[in-house]
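Re: the request from the purification team.
They wanted to know what the chain is likely to look like in 3D before they choose a buffer screen. I agreed to run a prediction and write the result into the notebook, where they can find it.
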Amino acid sequence: MFKVIQRSVGPASLSLFTFKVYASQKKDAPPKTSVKVNELSLYSVPECQSKYVEEPRTQLEESISHLRQYCQPYTSWCQEIYSQTEPKMQSLVQWGLESYEYLQNAPPGFFPRLGVIGFAGIVGLLLARGSKIKKLVYPPGFMGVAASLYYPQQAIIFVQVSGEKLYDWGLRGYIVIEDLWKANFQKPGNVKNSPGTK
């Protein structure tokens, strides 16, 4: 082991010494002339004058340009519709994921209740034969009655909110019909006790 350390210390200690080396000029070398950068072949610039000439457009390029100009309003309309519907679709996807997670971890008794509510809708559809209005009213009505049996608090809240909305819509419809009736069917001479006549 001592021999290995001794051999490695010797060359390592020589690297710590500094030496000066002097180079001597050759007496028989011809004098050098300096070369400019632009005289080198790599950096030479051609002397010719270049001019940009635009190539004429082909028939294919012209037809593609006309097609793009023709489709531009439609593509901008599609982009606008996409930008409007994208948040709605994102919220719909989020609702679907939340519903899926809820159905995976459903509370006990949820699926039998869901089956009874769905069966009530099918019974309503069977009882509504013949009339389109019955087909629109009976299935949701039967499903609502079945759902209100299982979820009475939510049914009360739903009835209150939907009742207020129905009242509001009915009032608006009444005002619109009254305005149309006054504008089209009532004439100043036909009305008794109108504000202008006594």
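For the purification team: DSSP finds five helices and no strands in the chain.
Please add any questions underneath this entry.
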